[in-house]
Every structure is written in structure tokens, then in C-alpha cells.
């Protein structure tokens, strides 16, 4: 039987690329430069399975490719707001993602951002490296205590629950959340969590607010100038979900004028083109979309794509089928 032709949009961990080479007629991306729309369209005309990631907008235009050879799109990542699922379905494609394997690492980064921004550790390190430190003193670089505070979740899915586990059991934090699809009573009682019916209630009652909803049209600018103003003045916003869930201009204003105390951000509108006004803000901790960036997790993500592709090739329904 001839091997499936597979095109991978970015460089993947070596171990997974080795399996890809063994099993498939694969085209890897050794330069690791993001593909253009034209290159993606060409790929869909040339391969049986296309394996994109968050940096590849597989939109209606890309999916309008004629003739289309691709039957399977295996996204390397859990978020799929960069793929037009309706258009993919209309073209008869199977699309999968990689849930579960990145839950813990993403929750770790959310917690890292929370601690970093609250305790000003990024600022502290910059201060030290700039050789500005004159020694310990009672009023130097005071941050905000984390233990026992209230953490509000916008969305209470897998990653939010993993963060709540760390925050509640590790730091004695009280958990509040809003989610149109709430978790089971068992999960809610594990965290003694308070469920609210509106985002505003979570914003008003939390010392830290962490975003864990999917990206896309439905959540675009879910947090905006009006509701950011409902947060407590000493509160912090953490975003490890998608940049455009928050109106970034409104957030910059809120950070500048003290509407909120700080933000820890792993994702941005229009990334990787960061709004340069973020760079002027000492009360913003900024990371380059590192949520799932551990070697173990990135290998697990690649293997999860392979599992889905293997099932598809065998005529089975892949575990992580989206459409
Ligand atoms: C995802 O998987 O959607 C993350 O944003 C990247 O790991």
C-alpha cells in the first residue's frame, strides 16, 4: 500500500518527526517559517493529510482550494479558532485537535503568570540585572499576597480546573467561575467553587481573574473597556487562552490608569505582532505563547495528532474529531 502524503506546517519535536518520516511520505518544514495562505492552499491540493498549528489560519479561502486532495486536517494544538470548521465540514474533511495532553502545562503557565505578576518577580529580576539593587529594605518592591485570595475563572473547562486544583489546594485560594457549560457537581465541590451566572459577577468578586474560554467569534472582546472597569482596582487579569478574548487596547488603558493592578499574558491580539504599548507597562508580565511549551507536552501533542491520523487512515473515527 502506498504511503499517505502528509504535509506538516511547522517544525515538530524530533522524536515525532522521526515517526512521521517512518510512517508517511512526509514534507516537513525544516525552516520553521509559518506558511503563507498560498502555500497552505498548495498543500491542500498536494497532500492527503495536512497538519497545521495555531499559527496557520486555515480559513474559508484556504479551504476553497480546487482541486482538493486533503481529507484530514490534524491540528497540533487544542484551540481550533484558526480553522473554519464549517468550511472544512462542507468540503467533507475530518478535523482533529489535541486536548488533554497540554492541560497541566498550560495550567502551570497560568499559575506562573499569576504568581509573577502578583509578586513582581519579573520586575525584580530586571531590577537586579540592571544592577539597581541597593539591598533589602522593608518597603522595597512590595507585591500582593496570593494565598487565600479569590481566583475567578472565565470558563471552567479542563485547563481552568487544573489551575483551580493548583490554586485551591496549593495556595488556599477561593474559586469562583462562570461557564455556560458548567462542570459536574463533583468538580464544583472539589474546589468548593462559587458558580456565577454572569461574567460581571466574577469580575466584581475576584482578586485574580483567569481566562479559560475558547477563542473565536463568540468570545471576541468578551472582556472590554466596560467590564474590565468592574474588576477590583487591586485585581489582576491572567490570559492563557486567546489574545482577542480581551480588547487589548482597553486592557492597556486599564493597566495604565490603574483600573486594575496588573496582567499576566501568554497570548495577544494579532500575535506575534505585540502591541508595543504593552512593553512600556511594568505591571504587565508578557510571555510568547508558552502555555504548552514543555518538551514532554509538545511530544505528546505530536503523538496525539499521529494517533488521530492513524485512526483516520484505518477508517475509524479519530478520538479528537471536531468535524
Ligand atoms: C493550543 O494548543 O491551542 C495552544 O494555544 C498552543 O499549545
Model description:
The chain has 323 residues and is α/β, with parallel strands linked by helices. It folds into two domains: 5-101 and 295-313, Rossmann fold (3-Layer(aba) Sandwich), CATH 3.40.50; 103-286, Rossmann fold (3-Layer(aba) Sandwich), CATH 3.40.50. Helices cover 34% and strands 13% of the residues. The protein has a seven-stranded parallel β-sheet, sandwiched between helices. A five-stranded parallel β-sheet has the order 2-1-3-4-5, sandwiched between helices. The protein is globular and about 70 Å long. Bound molecules: (2R)-2,3-dihydroxypropanoic acid (DGY).
Summarize the structure.
The chain starts with a strand and ends in a 10-residue tail after the last helix.
CATH topology of the largest domain: Rossmann fold
> Globular, elongated, flat, extended or rod-shaped: what is the shape?
globular
Our estimate of the beta-strand percent is 5-15%
CATH architecture of the largest domain, please?
3-Layer(aba) Sandwich
In CATH, the homologous superfamily of the largest domain goes by the name NAD(P)-binding Rossmann-like Domain
Q: Note the gap between the termini.
A: 27 Å
Strand arrangement across the biggest beta sheet: 8-7-6-9-10-11-12
Q: Low-confidence parts lasting 5 or more residues at pLDDT below 50?
A: none
Secondary structure tally: strands: 12
Helix content: 25-40%
Give the biggest beta sheet. 7 strands, parallel
- Helix and strand content put the structural class at alpha/beta
Main CATH class of the largest domain: Alpha Beta
Bound molecules: (2R)-2,3-dihydroxypropanoic acid
H/E series: EHEHEEHEHHEHEHEHEHEHEEH
Mean pLDDT: 98
Q: How many alpha or pi helices? A: 11
Number of domains: 2
Report Rg.
21 Å
Query: So what's the oligomer here?
Result: single chain
Amino acid at each position: 500500500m502506498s504511503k499517505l502524503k502528509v504535509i506538516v506546517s511547522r517544525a515538530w519535536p524530533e522524536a515525532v518527526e522521526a515517526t512521521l518520516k517512518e510512517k508517511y511520505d512526509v514534507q516537513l518544514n525544516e525552516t520553521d517559517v509559518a506558511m503563507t495562505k498560498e502555500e497552505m492552499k498548495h498543500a491542500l491540493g498536494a497532500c492527503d493529510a495536512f497538519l497545521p498549528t495555531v499559527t496557520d489560519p486555515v480559513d474559508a479561502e484556504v479551504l476553497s482550494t480546487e482541486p482538493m486532495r486533503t481529507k484530514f486536517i490534524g491540528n497540533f494544538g487544542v484551540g481550533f479558532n484558526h480553522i473554519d470548521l464549517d468550511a472544512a465540514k462542507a468540503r467533507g474533511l475530518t478535523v482533529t485537535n489535541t486536548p488533554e495532553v497540554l492541560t497541566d502545562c498550560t495550567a502551570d503557565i497560568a499559575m506562573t503568570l499569576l504568581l509573577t505578576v502578583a509578586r513582581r518577580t519579573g520586575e525584580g529580576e530586571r531590577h537586579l540585572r540592571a544592577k539597581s539593587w541597593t539591598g533589602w529594605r522593608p518597603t522595597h518592591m512590595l507585591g500582593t499576597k496570593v494565598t487565600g485570595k479569590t481566583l475567578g475563572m472565565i470558563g471552567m473547562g479542563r485547563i481552568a480546573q487544573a489551575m483551580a486544583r493548583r490554586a485551591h489546594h496549593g495556595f488556599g485560594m477561593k474559586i469562583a467561575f462562570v461557564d455556560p457549560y458548567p462542570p459536574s457537581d463533583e468538580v464544583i465541590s472539589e474546589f468548593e467553587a462559587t458558580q456565577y451566572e454572569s461574567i460581571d459577577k466574577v469580575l466584581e468578586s475576584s482578586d485574580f481573574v483567569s481566562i479559560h474560554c475558547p477563542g473565536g467569534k463568540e468570545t471576541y472582546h468578551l472582556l472590554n473597556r466596560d467590564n474590565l472597569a468592574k474588576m477590583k482596582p487591586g485585581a489582576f487579569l491572567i490570559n492563557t487562552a486567546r489574545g482577542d478574548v480581551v480588547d487589548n487596547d482597553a486592557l492597556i488603558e486599564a493597566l495604565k490608569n490603574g483600573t486594575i493592578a496588573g496582567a499576566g499574558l501568554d497570548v495577544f491580539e494579532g500575535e506575534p505582532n505585540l502591541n508595543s504599548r504593552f512593553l512600556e507597562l511594568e505591571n504587565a508580565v508578557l510571555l510568547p505563547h508558552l502555555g504548552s511549551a514543555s518538551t514532554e507536552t509538545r511530544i505528546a501533542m505530536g503523538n496525539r495528532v499521529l494517533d488521530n491520523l492513524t485512526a483516520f487512515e484505518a477508517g475509524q473515527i479519530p478520538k479528537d474529531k471536531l468535524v
